[in-house]
Amino acid sequence: MPEVTPGLTIGQVAERTGLSVHTLRFYEREDILAGPVRRGPGGRRAYTEQDVQWLIFCTRLRASGMPLTTIRRYTELVRLGPGNEPDRLAVLRQHREDVSRQISELTECLTLISHKVKMYEDSLTRDGTGPWRHGAVESPDRDGSTDSGGSPVRSRS
């Protein structure tokens, strides 16, 4: 008789995926797992390596902004098995487009922040005090950053 592998405990899966035990139970209730979680002796959850890999994938989808409702929909499609690959592909293509848009927006933000950091570094390098003036406030220039004449107030007490 072949030996039955007991599976991974919920604590082990939490450690491997970075998800809390509470989140794992929530994902199970919300049908985010690709298949039912097996139960071991005493009714304890017994996860498989495939469950762990699926959860890691779902965590990446969630971290990249995919709503739980969309993850659930994708999971439903996977559970249905072969024949709906075009639908799965459509879900992933849409998410890829959303992530690309987010990356573009964040790249613009990073460019602006980097410009501001360089402005302050250059100013502080020049005279050691920067463009600080009592009563000055930051005002945006054309690109949304501020010029050296519109720096934040620094108290001179």
TrEMBL record:
- InterPro entries per record: DNA-bd_dom_put_sf, MerR-type_HTH_dom, MerR_fam
- What is the name attached to this protein's record? MerR family transcriptional regulator
Cite the residue spans of the region called Disordered. Answer: 124-157
Q: Which domain of life is it from?
A: Bacteria
Q: Does the keyword DNA-binding apply?
A: yes
What are the alphabetically sorted keywords of the record? DNA-binding
Which residue stretches does the UniProt record annotate as biased composition, category Basic and acidic residues? Answer: 135-145
* Keyword DNA-binding belongs to the record: yes
> What positions does the domain HTH merR-type occupy?
7-77
Q: Quote the PROSITE patterns the UniProt record gives.
A: HTH_MERR_1, HTH_MERR_2
Q: Which Pfam families match?
A: MerR_1 (PF13411)
Species for this entry: Micromonospora sonneratiae
